[in-house]
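Suppose a colleague, Dr. K., hands you the sequence of a protein chain of 559 amino acids and asks what its three-dimensional shape might be. Before reaching for any lab equipment, you can write down a predicted structure in token form. Begin with the sequence itself:
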Amino acid sequence: MTSFNDVEDQVVIYLDHQKDGKIIYSETNSLLKTKLLAELVQKRNHIQDLKECVNSGDNSVRMILLSHFPIIDNHDQTYLLNILETFKEAFKFVPQSLKNDRNFVLKCLEVNGELFKEYEILANYVYTDERTGFSFIRKAFQLESVVKQLDPKTILSLPYSPLQYIISNREFFMKAVSINPTIFSCACRTLKADDELLFEAVKYNRQHLKFASLKQLENRNLIFRACETKESSKIGYWSSVLTIALPLAKYNPELALEIVEKDHESVACAIKHFKNHEKIIMKVIEIAPYLIFKVIKRQEWFPNMKEICLLALKKDPLIYKYLGRFRYDRDIFKFASDCGHISISYLYLSPEMLGDKVFAVGLVRSVSPLYFERLDENLKRDRDVILALAAHLQVLQQEFKEKYLPNLENDKEFLLEAVRRKRNGFSILSFASDELKQDRELILSDIRKCNNLNLVPIHLRSDREIVETFIKNVNLFLFDPSSFPDSLLEDSEFVWRMIDLRPNLIKKFPNHEFFKEKKIILKMISKNILCNEIISNELREDRDIKLALIKIGNYPFKE
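The predicted structure, expressed as tokens, is then:
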């Protein structure tokens, strides 16, 4: 068990350990949380040190230390105010003589407005005789710190005389609503009918618009001011300006439209109360296209429902699945398929749709290539339909090429467009004629999305432009090293260039001879891509390589 003297020595060391003249506080120091510390500080007359501990400690430490308050000069008002600023619970340790000093209590409220709700202050200064309470409340409510902490419940619980004074004091509310907007709800009816005060209150909290009369709501500046205000105690439907101004707006669709344009939170209210106003619904869908599922249920009310669906699709193509029967409209389907977001069931496709080129292209390209087999035979040989299928090259077999591509394998424009549309690493060159397989433009376009050079003619695999284009675009995880020309790997200048273009690609050739070249190894170290295992034993002893490794933070090779 730790002896008293041992702990005393630790405390003295702790109190003597200062930085810039202040105690360095540590929450993990359990000595601060014991009565022993307070006794030792008192014994050695380290009052100032204890003050520093209280100032820098957390609330649990403060409470323990302040419970031994007699050891501190508790009449030091500056010290007490400093503590009360962040720790209102310390008010219970304030001497009664200071608690009876109204000026000191007002100073306490100035540094921490939450103290206004303390029982001792309420009992001694608020719920006391009418004259004393009235005078104290008037001065307290002039303090910004107190106003910040007020709430309607606290104000309405005040004694009658100060309450009547506060709720009818226009000057107080004009200043207070900018500090604490919630207390405007306590104002008397006369003040709520004051246009200037209401405008100021709405400026900081749109919910105060609900206190406006119909005559005040006719002032559009007031409504638009609320639209610009984002502060609100509520969110969603009940926070929208249109919901609050509905008594007037429901008879004025033009006003409702303007509110929706300025306050996007009003869309839910608009879709509920203005479901038969086409302009408002169009604006709602433009702002929140996901609400189309509510409009689609009332499609009989809107003659141009197709335009509304197209507007929603332009804003968010993913809502295609919520369009009900309009998913099978030719124009809507084409727009959605062009965006690549189609969710459609084969069960609802009629033979007429499967014979329509627009539906055929969209189904094959954006839904599934398996739909190709279900299309009309004439469409299977259509150039655009086959081009749509080019995005799924992995499903194209040799028999497909012989049956549907004999006339297109010599069409360079078709093959270039197919390369542009394909989504995977398969090469389009397998579907090209022997003549087009030699075409540099087609090869350069294809290898940007291809992961090997096997289909490139042998005499072009060593072409610098083609190989560098391939290096820049190849997927490292799917790269096939066997397709890479050995002649280029024997060229030090090309290897140097490859390290600059794709540093990690060099690791795909771990046993190659160029790893015996010192300048290549130094280049790899500078790119921080070196693997120690691939360096030859001779180069491991090289002084320059060891220094280069140390420079980038790696250790030299172990003996």
